[in-house]
Write a structure and sequence with these properties.
This protein has 144 residues and is mainly α. Helix content is 73%, strand content 0%. The protein contains 7 helices and no strands.
Length: 144
């Protein structure tokens, strides 16, 4: 095993940190909300056909996640232009880390091998995201 190959747990922790800090999730702290970005990535990759290349899928995934975040944002607090730009960059960063370090780095672009570990990657992502949540964040979520 080469030493430049990223360690899965470290990359998944990095994804969770990006996802939590940038609030790339649904409206609350329930499982499905926290898992939204990783679910969208795997859903799109699972449906991949040979016609579209992986870079086209990367762009589509970024757009899909960002559109979801815009759609589910609280209408009482509309995003300012700089918020929108920052949120989009955060989504791009999360998806790019997934593609570059997990799909291309660990799995050498082999979707079939990645699919075998999908459930474990998702479970680890949820574990690490929940580790990022501070008690005060949980209180804020309960109040809203």
């Amino acid at each position: 095993m080469s030493s430049d190959k990223p360690k899965a747990s470290e990359v998944i922790q990095e994804l969770a940190k990006i996802g939590w800090q940038a609030k790339i999730k649904g409206r609350n702290l329930v499982r499905s909300s926290l898992m939204m970005p990783i679910n969208k990535i795997f859903d799109k990759l699972r449906r991949q056909q040979q016609i579209l290349d992986l870079e086209t899928l990367r762009a589509a995934i970024i757009t899909e996640i960002f559109t979801y975040l815009e759609r589910t944002a609280d209408p009482k607090y509309p995003w300012r232009a700089e918020t929108r730009i920052k949120k989009r960059r955060n989504v791009e960063e999360l998806v790019t880390v997934f593609f570059d370090k997990i799909l291309y780095g660990i799995y050498q672009g082999k979707l079939a091998r990645l699919a075998v570990d999908e459930k474990d990657i998702k479970a680890a992502y949820l574990f690490y995201v929940r580790n990022e949540i501070k008690p005060e964040d949980e209180k804020k979520d309960e109040e809203s």
